[in-house]
Amino acid sequence: MRLALYEPDIPQNAGTIMRMAACMGVSVDIIEPCGFTLSDRRFRRAGMDYLDHLDLTVHASYEAFTSSPVRTASRTILLTTRADTFHHEVTYEPGDTLMLGRESAGVPDDVHNAADLRVKIPMAPVPSLRSLNVAMAASMVLGEALRQTGQFPDSVQTGASDITMPATTGVSP
Asked: Residue 100's CB: how many other CB atoms inside 10 A?
């Protein structure tokens, strides 16, 4: 499973997504140009020292991304408000790449049309509620994809029956 950030605009969102990816053991592709440099202090602050544990590949362009060796055997699933399919209705595969567009503009039509699948997150039917924050959307869809494919890191696959609550807390679980 991979996450691809198409020309990200906001360093704090990119850093947050990469921090999540590091914690989940998921690789990240950044498709340039970015709206910031990878040395931007806001980006580094959001990602903290977690970025040191991230498998990150930076691509100079969308064309470089699509022609990279890791792309040849995987599907690209675009998270977009212009999709007809909800993210939980898709059957994910272990090699999928979940692509997120720019916060300000999404992806251009050619990138949208090139995606193997396009998914959206169900939201309340209020016209003024257009979309979720890109990092929140990434976490929701990645969580579903990891759940379906059994790819959550071992440390989070502990069953509820394996958790022991101290008897002296006086608090009911």
From this structure: 24
Query: Is the alpha carbon torsion for 12, 16, 22, 27 positive or negative?
Result: negative
Q: Which residue has the tokens 């990816």?
A: 21
Phi and psi at 86, nearest 5°, equal -80, 150
Contact 7, 31 (CB under 8 A): yes
- Strand ranges inside 72-155, DSSP E: 76-79, 85-86, 97-100, 117-120
- Nearest CA to 30 out of 6, 49, 13, 54 is that of 6
Q: What angle do CA 137, 159, 136 make, to 5 degrees?
A: 10
Q: What's the whole-model pTM score?
A: 0.84
Q: 128-166 pLDDT, tens per residue?
A: 888 899 999 999 999 999 999 999 987 544 444 443 333
Tokens representing residue 27 in the block = 């690789």
**Beta strands 97-100; 76-79: pairing state:** parallel
Q: How many Å apart are CA 99 and CA 1, to the nearest integer?
A: 11
